Amino acid sequence: MQKKNQRVFVVFILLISLNYLFSFTANQYNFTSFYQFEMFNSWLKKAGVKNDNIASLSKEKIIMQITDESKNKIDIVLIMKNWKVIQQLEKVKINANENYDFEKYHTLLEEFIFRINTVNKRYIQDFISDTNTQIYYENEIGSTALNLLWNDNLDSRINIESIDFIYSKKFIGFKIYCINQKDFSVYFKANLDLKMLLINKKVSENFAENELQIAKQVSYIGEDIKRNIEFKIERVIADFIEKQHAIQKEIDIIMYENRIQYEDSKFSLEKQLSDTEKKISFLEEKKTETVKLESNKLSQYFTKNHKVAFSRILLNNKIQDFGSFLKKEFPSFRISREKNSYTLYIEDFRNELSGEISLLLEHNKDGINVYAEDSFVIQNNKIVFSEGCEISKGNLSENEFYSIAPYINQLLITHRTIGTELLNFLLFPGSVSTKVIINGTERRMFNVSTYTNCLLMLSKYWANRIVYFNITGLKKVNNYIELRGSLAAVDNLKNKYDYAEIRFHLDKNLKMDLVMMSIYPELQMIP
Fold first, then answer.
1. 3-class DSSP state for residue 255?
2. What order of strands is seen across the sheet that includes strand 84-90?
3. Between 349 and which of 84, 130, 241, 353 could a Cys-Cys bridge form, CB atoms 3.0 to 4.6 Å apart?
4. Nearest 5°: phi and psi at 218?
5. Range in 21-35, 150-164, 209-223, 482-496 with the lowest mean pLDDT
6. Are 124 and 116 in contact, with CB atoms under 8 Å apart?
7. Are strands 433-438 and 512-524 parallel, antiparallel or unpaired?
8. What's the pLDDT tens digit per position in 263-319?
């Protein structure tokens, strides 16, 4: 009898390992918690089906295809650990290149869909709270969007027609198109080490393999000369194509520079009133201010230093108390802290430019790292930043708009730390071509090696000032994206400030490739 029981047990295990189809009736014992069991029943109730379905079983999961009361076929997966269900998913297909590596986020989306299709709102609320998920629906965001979405589909399941994949360095998004229902979007915060473009990795590996094969081939005597010549011809052709691309890019940049310089000259002429004073429009309003031109120390400073290589200071292992460091660097700011997040508050400059800064502190074996904390939402075709900045979508595509939001957030925080040692943590590396125009008794133009070097140079000059900065414009021109920023470096002791208009030009990969800055120094603050 004992041997018979052993054989039955062995057969049962074999059937399980072969994904044996069986009739699955869920009970509380099958689930790791009563919460998971109740959520399964809540999903069945909204689908209008009974707790008795054909399923495929393995050690890791139970797979079921269920036909709901509307005759729609639905695949659900119950993820298991130690033979108990720990997670429940509703399978969905996403329109994305197969080379994208987003399996983790695909799974999160499928758990989201499962929970939104239950009859108890608690399950989706818990998920959003635990994963910091954002919902966009009917031009609303967060809990308001969830309430609208839930109420609009109170008595029916979310019936999905298709799903588009949206990616960025900071978040992973999915645009969900529904059948006879309104569309909505879901966004998850992305890991910094996410391999967004696996295809690039494959291309580089294939290129390396080809290079290796060429190296092996040219070592053989018989075909060595022939293959070597072919390789050189291929390289000549490739170099020619590369030079053609470089020439075209040079033409694009020259045209862009000419247009910006024309706009800047026009801007200067419109504001000039006499040889000794001019009035400028601050952020396109009718506020006028006298510019004193007798002394232009900034122009002298650039003349002396624009070719000097400035370097950032490595402070990662030199700061023992980050809170005290912030108080020293930002004495005029009110500082609040929540765990490893710091927010620095100050009143806006002229109710136009913000100086607010949001930071995230990270401890590691080398000391500390400091990052610009993501603090923005996208709604009503606008990027709204908590740091007092709001930018309209303009003529950008939705993918471009979503991709550029974290980049703008980084620009805001970085520029507002100019003049302090905190800038050393936030500077973005790169060799971006930079032109600076100093307006004074005469306009002087300086070519600075990189924008990083330009910011370090200005940071030294503007030490102990408060720097306010906003992005004031966003548009696409000739298929390239341009950003326009406004900056004020304020010296409250002297009742003066330097004002700058900054234009950022992005290439087709949304990388900064040109910066033009026009500075009006020594403006007198009018009470």
1. helix
2. 21-24, 53-57, 61-67, 73-81, 84-90
3. 353
4. -70, -10
5. 209-223
6. yes
7. parallel
8. 554 444 444 433 334 344 444 343 333 334 334 789 999 999 988 888 888 888 899
